[in-house]
Amino acid sequence: MENISPTLLWEIFKHVRRWLANLSRAGLQRRQQSKQALQRVILTARETAVYLRQIRDQGQSDHAVERHLAKLWTQLGFELDELGLNKLAKRCHISGKSWAEPDFYDANFLQQADISLHTMEKLAEQILMKLNQR
Question: Contact, 97 vs 76, CB < 8 A?
Answer without folding.
Answer: no
